[in-house]
Design brief:
The complex is a heterodimer of chains A (about 170) and B (about 190).
Chain A lengths: L6 H5 L10 H16 L18 E2 L9 E5 L3 E4 L2 E5 H5 L6 E2 L2 E2 H21 L6 E6 L5 H13 L4 E8 L3
Parallel strand pairs in A: 1-8, 2-7, 7-8
Antiparallel strand pairs in A: 2-3, 3-4, 5-6
Helix pairs in contact in A: 4-5
Chain B lengths: L20 H17 L5 E7 L9 H6 L12 E5 L2 E5 L4 E2 L19 E2 L8 H15 L8 E6 L5 H12 E4 L2 E4 L3 E4 L5
Parallel strand pairs in B: 2-6, 6-9
Antiparallel strand pairs in B: 2-3, 3-4, 3-5, 7-8
Classes of the chains: A alpha/beta (about 170), B alpha/beta (about 190).
């Protein structure tokens, strides 16, 4: 018997070829759900850099807002404005450090605290005296104490040390 | 010319598909947005409260702010040195097992309560255990049985300090977390 062409295929019309997007949609949905799950509305508090590696801690307390003091390897900053180079702080340069108090930092902090106190009088926003310290993990204790002492003297006694949370 | 039948006769039912293009557009926009906004590193904070206006130049004020002389306090202090941890309270200094002062050495040169490990690492687990012993003895006797003061040598790194705070804050025994000394203060004095 001779070869009989397929009767089904004979009547099959040219079908439009379309990409099957269903699996891609599945993937995107999973990624989207995952990203929304760990999306934080608070925004990033810090910008990590080569000169600032925060220490790790097991504490589970969530960060809160306060005046930002950054103590990196290179420079001391308040609210992202450079205040003093760390080299002068470490060497106790008398123009910068006096009796373990970092003078430019104290002036800056006093300026911010006076502004905040004015806000408290004018608008009723309470002055909390909170300052968040972002210190590099290799910072020696002597330098940290200088910063903390200066904060204490400049009306910011409530210190918050910012750390990376260990997740294990 | 005769009537020509409509060509629609041959038209097949089209395979109706959902138009996914707008959903795709949404995904393509939202995924980069969420990726850029999400935090993969979780931040935390350690609270450290100083008495207002404490410091070297107002030391006089500080002493007047501490009344209640008759109340006995523990004043537990951890001193972090390159050789290890020294534990001390208002009453005594704890000594380690092999901390008997070598013959001829002065009393102050006794070894640390918890010596550093041989590779130079600090023994935080041992510190937590020791603090648990202290806590169990001090609980209920002293009013400041949840407070601890840290002091350190000037070269001690910030990370070591934070690890010591962690070790002093709590200890995990058989999966249960026992609180030790969560109220941490830093001593202004640098050794």
């Amino acid at each position: 018997m001779a070869f009989v062409p397929s009767k089904i295929k004979k009547h099959k019309s040219e079908m439009e070829v379309s990409l099957n997007l269903t699996s891609m949609m599945d993937m995107f949905t999973i990624i989207l759900v995952f990203l929304i799950k760990n999306y934080s509305t608070e925004g990033a508090l810090i910008t990590p850099s080569d000169y600032l590696h925060l220490p790790f801690s097991q504490i589970q307390k969530a960060p809160e807002k306060g005046l930002d003091v950054v103590v990196s390897k290179q420079v001391l900053m308040v609210n992202n404005e450079p205040v003093a180079p760390m080299a002068d702080v470490v060497t106790n340069n008398p123009a910068i450090v006096e009796q373990g108090v970092i003078k430019p930092l104290r002036e800056k902090l006093l300026y911010y605290s006076s502004q905040s106190k004015k806000m408290e009088v004018d608008y009723g926003i309470k002055f909390s005296g909170k300052v968040t310290i972002q210190g590099d993990k290799d910072l020696p204790y002597s330098e940290l104490v200088k910063v903390i002492r200066t904060c204490g003297l400049a009306d910011y006694p409530n210190l918050r040390l910012v750390v990376y949370r260990k997740t294990d | 010319m005769a009537f020509r039948p409509s060509l629609r006769r041959h038209m097949r039912m089209e395979n109706t598909d959902l138009n996914l293009t707008p959903v795709m557009n949404l995904m393509v926009v939202m995924i980069p947005m969420l990726l850029s906004g999400s935090q993969f590193i979780k931040l935390g904070i350690i609270e450290l409260n100083l008495p207002p206006a404490a410091g070297a130049s107002v030391a006089g004020k500080q002493t007047t702010a501490l009344p209640k002389e008759e109340q006995r306090s523990l004043d537990l202090t951890i001193s972090i040195t390159a050789r290890g941890f020294y534990l001390s309270s208002a009453l005594t200094v704890l000594h380690g097992k092999d901390a008997t002062a070598p013959s001829g050495a002065q009393a102050g040169t006794a070894g640390p309560t918890i010596p550093a490990k041989t590779d130079g690492e600090y023994d935080f687990a041992e510190l937590s255990k020791k603090l648990l012993e202290v806590k169990q003895k001090a609980q209920g006797i002293f009013p400041d049985a949840d407070a601890i003061v840290l002091q350190a040598e000037k070269d001690i790194k910030y990370q070591t300090l934070v690890d010591t705070m962690d070790a002093a804050r709590m200890i995990e025994i058989d999966g249960k977390v026992v609180e030790l000394f969560p109220r941490v203060a830093l001593s202004a004095g640098v050794m």
